[in-house]
Design brief:
mainly beta; Jelly Rolls; 3-stranded antiparallel β-sheet; 2 helices; 12 strands
């Protein structure tokens, strides 16, 4: 079983590695006494994230996520990093492939299936819905510092 590796931590940051994208399949996520999801790893806690959770998952050809699910308060972004498949939300099914980004509101009934001939790897970012407003734009929230870079 693959483990998350801590690279470095400091006062205002932490860095971890889940391994190469083709190694995501080696992770295992225990969900209960008799349930383990192979090829899935949550990373938010490992990096100390305070405003979101994120996970990587790899589905082998023909595999689906196993169940429909919703959330109480979390919106999700699914980012397809490799492969191709179908995404289902509220009974609608559409194709997804590398570079596809799908946003699903908390109440959306969702699932993903690998319909390709190679592994499908995705990144899922979940965060509390309806908290960002106009004032939270990345163009107004960021500060460009007048300090030299240290490469």
């Amino acid at each position: 079983m693959k483990k998350i590796e801590t690279i470095k931590t400091g006062k205002n940051y932490s860095a971890v590695s889940v391994g190469r994208m083709d190694e995501i399949i080696e992770h295992e996520l225990p969900m209960g006494p008799d349930v383990t999801i192979h090829g899935k790893v949550f990373v938010g806690q490992a990096v100390g994230a305070t405003g979101s959770e994120l996970s990587f998952q790899t589905l082998v050809p023909g595999q689906d996520s196993g169940f429909l699910h919703t959330h109480k308060t979390h919106e999700e972004l699914y980012i397809i990093l490799k492969g191709e498949g179908q995404y289902q939300v509220d009974g609608e099914v559409f194709p997804v492939s590398e570079g596809t980004v799908v946003r699903v509101a908390p109440d959306g009934k969702r699932a993903l299936k690998n319909t390709g001939k190679a592994n499908l790897t995705m990144l899922c970012i979940q965060y509390k819905a309806n908290v960002f407003g106009e004032a939270d734009s990345p163009m107004t929230d960021g500060n460009i510092l007048q300090e030299p870079l240290k490469w």
